[in-house]
Specification:
23% strand; 341 residues; homohexamer; alpha/beta; 11 helices; 6-stranded parallel beta sheet
């Protein structure tokens, strides 16, 4: 038996991605699943391996002292109350993005986690992707110098062909194009720029295509950001495009630039008129199968095991990204710049 | 002898690009050059071909009735008074970008040209480049549907290795990164989006590299735009980067997207998970040798010859781009959104 | 239960390709298989899913009123009598290519289908491939103008390493290189040129390689075609080559050309000296796994459901391609041009 | 002084290509030019180097005993009488393609050359191109085995942008698309197949584009050929396309195939599902600058010097290609197959 | 039942690669496995298919007359005594590389096999890889002329992430970087040069990375070789690098060169300033899944069946490669050149 | 007038490469040329620009006090006495590679330069090439860690098509393949490994091609090296190959590897199974036009101007490379390892 038992709440598509990733780590395993639908323990165990108990009542799951971690895979609007309850029950927490749809909910989760002293891991797993591990290493090795401008954008047409579309088009579920999907790009931008946001302005719009008509909110936005150290950034979140998936990154610094998997650094005396290229797997699809859940969960269980906080994607870190997203969405709504921090 | 004699004012690097381009057209030829330096007519004629008269006094040049067109190649801060004088003298006008450094000067030029009923051609020659002729044709063929989001950006490190750097670093000469160089990108964005701008917000900053320290103004800016029809856009102007020249274009519409020389269109039933590619010469350098001056001037002389207005790059059209640039620069300066139109 | 039950006749390699494709549609499912070999219903059901009844006698299968569609997957020389019988029994028909080996058989099938008013779908599934859906869309969007010359060719070395080789080398089974395999290319050429053939001339030959010695007919032919509107075409059918599979397409029109996945169109103002490229899956193998059976069958069941004729690959449409093939083969045999239509 | 003095007759574009190529050889030099226009010897010498005498009367040129070779660069309809006269005058001959417009003229030239025992070199210089030297070497090394099918095609849109267009559109000057330009492709096909043609059938047509309306003859043709050894071939000649220049080659033999610069050979045990690639300069433009005139002329002067016949492109060899072209054109005109040989 | 029953001795990773490869041949099948661990016959049969009997005692396995072939998959230091015993028992032999760790053991094995007249196949399966089948064919076709210089190198970082690392770091198991892994490269070099080695000199060293510290021997060596005919060669064996797997080949001859999958041959008249490319699967990983075990074993069973010796990888042939390796390792150890043969 | 006047001795091909490179610097200019042939000052000045005096007697040139630097471009066997004379005359020295053909000459040159306290620059200009500036920067940035193995090789077929061939085939002029051309590769290897050589072993041979028969020495050699810190290296020098020019570099260190313009570094967390790529101009031809003479000479004049020693390519530095080359050649000759240092 491995050391950490995990109970999943919400048994949809994302749960089926969490389960093998958790079971693939050296320290964790899924032992419980809670859903509003009636599930059968035997069938779940057969499907996912190991011994899984089905729950219909989340409180019952929380009452089980053999469960050490709860992974919140429910709809975004259910996250806050479940996280608060789980924290009170002393469970460590894995929480899917987006964390929630309002600043109030965000604060409630943070407060509960701090009070209960539980560890938290938010699914901004792109920080553990091949692309951003390499990108961050290039920055940290000083090859780009000090960054003063950065763009990270999310282009991914989420239409009827995509599972999430069914519920994600609702305002109270998806929230905004930046929150529901672009959050990965904005979070990656903050990772790269490594600095505090002081102001954002955001403009938004919608495609005229019928395909995307069901959305109750604007499905394209572009946000510009000012950082405390004077550098600036930009994040476009476009879920109503018809094109290949594109997670666009362009970073500009005092010693060079990075564009997706290409870079130039004055420090290496390479040809400035052509890009050098980094061997990396680009984020090129919205599917979790391309995302490094397992590396992230491994890091979380290792953190639990050594009593440390989760690196890169703790609730505290992820909360900062959400604050900027909420500010950007408020800017688009109110038509004026919003101060942060 | 060809039909239109052209007098050049300002004999710097850009003049040496205008001269062969004008002489390469079927209807125009350079017959006069005016400079604050003493020039020798014989030497100029030998160097550039044809018979060129050197002038030291611009009024003398204007007094010559055999000169039909004046091409303004002087420093940007000299444009307004020269354009006004030339228009009064009844000369048609070719004017280098940027047109001027203030809205007041812009209005003065427009007024003078209208009053004198002279024809005008502003050097936004990127509109005549292989890249944007093809891009515009793809849009006009309906392959992208109705555009709702567009980005055109200008990344070109203009440091001591680049001729322009000598004077361009001065606030009263270069103006801003958007005005001095990014203007091509913003003008191309307006061409593609084909709609009236109603509001802009712009953030700006500077590289920490010593290389760019001489600049008296911020050398990186990012501007977001709202159009009258609800669509939105974005333009980054970065003259302090250290990377290959990059004129980045990304257009998103109801039937597909275009990214530089790549595109996807639902109308062609191609694979949505990969880009189709357009054979085109990308704008990949800041040098005029890559820019289609000659095509533009040929169009201007043809317009003169048929009594029509210059297509695509008349003063009226170019003035709209400059208004947006001035608004963006004001936004960056004042820290608030600026209404246009 | 889905709406249309399908009975397969002939349980060879092609049947194993039809079954999952049929079961993959939204409206059809395989419920019967008839073979001259003794098959076991339980085993067939286990292997292919669903409930499949094994038949040894085709008449018995036809007598089953619960079977709505018959898919003819037998040897080409058996098609005619089976199609006629099935039509008489009121079954709709899916028929593998080639339809038959003689014009007499073709007419018999057409007559029977018309008399019985059953719907028909012939397996010219390349018309539903990514490559030809895109190619046809490019033509229909007018990017090539009016076509006046077209080539579609089939290069695929069918030797002992290829299953079909066992029986396909017989004159009374394979017929000719154009009929047995090149028919896909000729059919695609007619799709693209969209016009009636009035005359063909064909020359044929054989490889000197021992590998292909077992063939009882010439295994390379080249056919040229005249269309009613004056345009011309060409189709090479080569099953005795030793090279990568190649489905070569070259279309020449009044606004541009298309070469496989490349094209040039004057309408897009791209560079005429280089090809633009279309993102598409090229037909690059003779295996059905590369062929779009499922899309074709889905279209057929949808047609049945709405009482319409099968689009693109009905018996009437496919018969026209076979008439041209028979004429071409007659030309090669007789050594003179053959009139069509 | 080099050994062979050459007199040029016809001072158009092709002459300006011959002159430097001849002067670039180790044994030949241009010393005379004859044109119907008045030319100045001093000016010609200055332009082309060396000492060149201008002639207005071809007979005068022929009367000069210091001229050893005549290069015939006049319009195709003037070739025959000039060649006959030059041969009678004992001059060796370089003759541009096409040789002439009729079989009668061809026979007259052959007869005169044989009678006078002069050496001849016809400008089928593609036989000396990098592409066909390598292609022929691959065949001769046995890597393709015995060829049984071959295609060589010529796609080159010759419109108003191309110098030749001015006179080439006339029936009595251009002749046919196969004769005027496609002759290079047909000649290369015969080189590769290395066998005698016994029959041809040709179909022809025209583009509907206005661009090509001035042509007095059909500008697209496709010809199929039977060879004495049973192998077959095909040649398309398309001068009314709008696409990149394409000299398409596809050869199929008993050990492998060659497609342009790609090949597969069973003898090398490489992967049959992918092409191997040959490093070669493809014929990718209609300009003589891409054609290997100089290699060809060097070979001719070496042949003269050793008293041998010109290899690869003697009049006898080139005559065979022209006979096939005339037969093909007659087939297109008469609508029936034409026997050759 | 197929003709040859094979008993495996040593049930580690390499055995699991041999089993399906043997079972995939037309004549052989695994019927016995012998391991020092207790194995269960039923479980083995279920896992690998067929009927497999588990043995704990190798002598018992050898005593079984139904076993015709023994495949030696144990640790290298166990090979010699097992091979000798199996030969004495009259079993034919498949032996994994490296054969053994000393010349004495090598001679013992050779002697036993000769005495017993059993057939032998050593796992230098790279000789049956796509890469070296093609490379050898290019040499044999004379495209490179007579070789006078050759390099084949092995770069493959074998660290803790690689299964073998566990035991391979021991001096008495791995031996040397050249013996444990580089042996494939040296063996391939001998295959290509096709000549007897007369002298070797080898230098060796180790990476300073902690990752490779566990190795008890030097993990990088470079060996130069003199052949009897005067040609020379070189083989680097590097198992302590951090880079992509690279099996580097460079052969230089009197008609051309080959570099990995690229070549130039004067015989094909291709462009000497660029490489032609051969379509082949490069050896690009240390995993057996990339290695052609099955082709090799098929050839072995065919040899058994026709009473011939194993081509390319018999014990006699492989012994020659090991002699050179032992000489090279002795050179590195003693610091002087070692004579061979 | 610029500050440093340069006199050239030896007016062959290499001199014509030095002259524009020297004149292209900011501080130097060629004012004298000395040759054994009679040259005309006026003609030389016209050809190369500036004012150049022709000398027939080297002592006269040395006697001219206005000449500050002598560039030695004569045959290698003339270098020593000219360098000694020039040093005695107080001239600074540019010396072409190879420096000389014997250790005695090398020592004489070193002694003379030291005694005269003149500055020296040896033409190992590859150290100033784009490729090795970038390679060295990658090493110095620590991206490869500590190097323990390195290869730099020189493959360049120097046959009759190459100017140098005329005299270079003589033993007393070319010396050896390593000395005459491979010296660039060996020098670059020492630059990269940055360590003292303690021993070398070299094997040599010749191509069997007639093309290279005129060489009086072996034209292929491979040398292995031991460095003081335990790392090892290898250098092949092949001037008798028939393939594209290839300056092969492979460096292996404790954090990654570099292969030509590709690299992997564990420090950047990129994908270890694929190479990252550096934008650089590879040394891809033996022509000086590809070599960075001008950068090197600029650095030399700057060194003169600031009284510093020449960086990277001083006589002292270059002497170390020559010592290793002489040792390697002695090893090949004597058949045993040679100690260095």
């Amino acid at each position: 038996m491995k050391k950490y038992n995990v109970g999943i709440v919400g048994y949809g598509w994302v749960a089926t991605a969490h389960i093998p990733a958790i079971n693939g780590t050296s320290l964790g395993q899924v032992t419980a699943i809670c859903s509003s639908r009636k599930l059968d323990s035997t069938e779940l165990s057969a499907r996912h391996g190991g011994r899984i108990t089905a729950y219909n009542d989340f409180d019952e799951l929380l009452a089980n002292p053999d469960i050490h971690v709860v992974s919140v895979c429910s709809y975004p609007y259910d996250h806050a109350k479940q996280v608060v309850a789980a924290a009170k029950a002393g469970k460590h927490l894995i929480i899917e993005k987006p964390l929630c749809l309002s600043l109030a909910d965000l604060r409630a989760m943070q407060k509960a986690a701090q009070a209960a002293k539980v560890k938290t891991c938010v699914c901004f797993e792109c920080r553990f992707s091949s692309q951003f591990l390499a990108t961050k290493s290039v920055i940290d090795a000083g090859l780009l110098g000090k960054l003063h401008y950065g763009e990270v954008d999310y282009y991914h047409g989420i239409g009827p062909w995509y599972g999430q579309f069914r519920w994600n088009t609702r305002k109270d579920a998806g929230g905004s194009s930046l929150l529901t999907a672009g959050c990965h790009a904005l979070d990656a931008l903050l990772l790269c720029m490594g600095n505090e946001v002081v102001e954002v302005t955001s403009y938004d719009t919608k495609s005229r295509s019928k395909v995307f008509a069901p959305y109750q909110y604007t499905t394209t936005s572009v946000t510009i950001l000012k950082f405390k150290d004077g550098s600036i950034g930009k994040c476009a979140a476009v879920v109503d495009c018809l094109q290949p998936y594109y997670f666009h990154t362009h970073l500009v610094g005092s010693e060079g630039s990075l564009l997706d998997n290409k870079f130039h650094s004055m420090k290496l005396h390479t040809n400035k008129h052509a890009w050098s290229a980094l061997a990396m797997k680009l984020l090129d699809s919205g599917d979790v199968s391309d995302h490094p859940y397992q590396s992230q969960f491994e890091a979380f269980f290792q953190a639990l095991d050594t009593g440390k906080d989760m690196p890169l994607t703790s609730l505290a870190e992820a909360a900062r990204s959400h604050e900027v997203i909420f500010a950007a969405d408020r800017s688009a709504e109110t038509g004026r710049a919003i101060k942060c921090g």
